[in-house]
Amino acid sequence: MFTIRQIGPEDLAIYKLIRASALKNNPDAFGQTLENFLMRDDKTHLAGLTKTAADPHSATFVAFDDETPIGMAGLVRQEGPKMRHKAFLWGMFIEPSHRGRGIGSMLVEKIIDAAKESGAIIQVHLTVVSNNIEAIRLYEKFGFQIWGTEPRALKSLNGYSDEIHMVLKIL
Asked: Could you read off the pLDDT of 97-110 as tens digits, one per residue?
């Protein structure tokens, strides 16, 4: 049975495990590299988890198969008085062995619900590499719309990846 729960600083080991898996399994899908992630010390990771947990307009969710983390997605509210009405969906990942089983939909629903419940967020933004058609379809299913493409947004050993920018207007 799959469950999803919000994590915080007390879940550092879970966060590190699932984020490292995301960066290892899909290195071209994220702006961060596995090497960069692993170089950060626990204090740095804890600071990020603590900041997110303390903000009622941000959250990090992890999907579990029993006790095993199998996916994640985060929501972070933008900073600054002119941007605080927006949030960004980041870090979306499902373990390859669990894809196609509705877990992505469950995580996106949690993100949208958290944004709505915040009472302050009126739109959620995200970026997704242009060749990740399954993810684009998932986001479109929930009403996200493409508003632009950033050419060569990410560079890796495999070359460049364009990023699709999407937005969901909640209000």
From this structure: 999 999 999 999 99
Tokens of 79: 């900073």
d(CA 165, CA 95): 23
Give 2-169's CATH code, choosing from 3.40.190.10, 3.40.630.30, 3.40.50.10170, 3.40.50.720: 3.40.630.30
Q: Are 65 and 46 in contact, with CB atoms under 8 Å apart?
A: no
The answer to whether 60 and 52 are in contact (CB under 8 A) is yes
- Cα separation of 136 and 41, whole Å? 33
Domain ranges in the chain are 2-169
Torsion of CA 59, 64, 66, 68, to 10 degrees: -110
Give the tens place of pLDDT for each residue, 72-82: 999 999 999 99
Report the alpha-carbon distance of residue 94 to residue 153 in Å, rounded: 22
Q: At what angle do helices 42-54 and 12-25 cross, to 10 degrees?
A: 110
Q: Can you tell me whether residue 80 is helix, strand or coil?
A: coil
Q: Measure the CA dihedral 21/25/27/32, to 10°.
A: -10
Question: And the tokens for 50?
Answer: 């603590």
Q: What is the pLDDT of residues 97-148, one digit of tens each?
A: 999 999 999 999 999 999 999 999 999 999 999 999 999 999 999 999 999 9
